[in-house]
Specification:
By secondary structure, this protein is of the alpha+beta class. It has 8 helices and 22 strands. Helix content is 19%, strand content 25%. The strands form 6 sheets. Strands 7-6-10-3-12-13 form a 6-stranded antiparallel β-sheet, with no helix packed on it. A 5-stranded parallel β-sheet has the order 17-16-18-19-20, sandwiched between helices. Helix 2 crosses helix 8, helix 3 runs parallel beside helix 5 and helix 5 packs parallel to helix 6. It is globular, with a radius of gyration of 21 Å.
Length: 430
Amino acid sequence: MQAAGWIPSGLAVLVALACAVGLAVATGGAPRPPTAAPRADACGPRWVAGWQAAAEMGPRPEGLGGATVRMVVDPQVTGSEVRLRLSNAYGATPLAVGAATAARSDGTAGTVAGSVRPVAFAGQQSVVIPPGGHVVSDAVPLVAEVGRPLAVSLFLPVVPEALTQHSVALRDTYLSARGDATFADASAFPSVLPSWPVLSGVEVRVPRAVNGVVAVGDSITDGVGAASGQRWTDVLSGRITDTGGAATMAVLNAGISGNRLLPGDGPRHGEPVLDRFDRDVLAVAGATDVVLHIGTNDIATGRGAEELVAGVRLVAERARAAGKRVFLTTVTPSTTGPRGTPAGLAAREELNAWIRTHGREHADGVFDFASAVADPAHPSRLAPAYDAGDGLHLSAAGYRALAAAVDPALLTGSPCLSGDPAARVVVAGR
């Protein structure tokens, strides 16, 4: 779970929203052959998802109401303009964003001098997100660059008790004292949070079409047990970036800790994959591929292999019906709690056996995550070097092993970049 022109060493990567409080409301079958070379007219500039976090409902972070939150995110593509996606998907009341900015980040609470910019919403410098809805900012002529983080700051005058957010950011989010600190320096942010509130995505306008692969799953995709930059999606992104050319893709993480495949748990650990698939995968701009790793939490609640197989097949069918390339993964081993009961062990082994034997009949490929991290002497358990310490989540080495189990050659890649050097965007005056 990586146009106006620039020179990679010195890029303005800012996304900003400045606000006053005048708020504006704002199918089964054999695998398909590799993607054919695109038409020339399909390779022009376009908006694609450059970063995303799957939305879930969570409690309001202490001190957030009336304060400013600054989040650090890592764009997966390079382009000339950006726009932000803000979510109130689980809100029961309208959510006001009083001001917002984005900038190049120094990797912590600070921003690169001179890089902070405002961004408007339908021409307004503030916005109200309706209950259950989301908003997308206006386009801002700023450059996003792979490998250089962005800082997005939101001033939230009033925050409800239950807030749409992503609970496991795996990097510090910074919180100010009360007031609008969207243009402030690092000294205005004395506290930290573990989550990404309200921000659900950053879209980037790229000079040539870049495709994306969305990793959908639970805490294993969310990266629990590792540090920032160590999720298997981060490692895969690095491999793909190093290859470059037509192999280039944005690797987008749609993991949610505690998430399940099948309905039954409500939104407490995010909506189940079958319910959130349209929003978190099919609606993602530029996404062509899906990697599904899910099931361990369903097994822990007593779900059997037969219904899990049916759910996996349904996800694959929906993805392929929408024209996506879809890849299934086996469920990583664990003997913790109900996962280690005879029924739990049998359900996982039966599900994994079906994926290995029949998965390619319903998807474009299978990645054997379970075998990649299992203890050879006790395959129902994680290998000690890959265990984060709780028998379920993976260490950094374990996440590297999962990324190594993904064959990038099976992914769609970005045919529009075939034979080309890395795209360069020219910043005015550079």
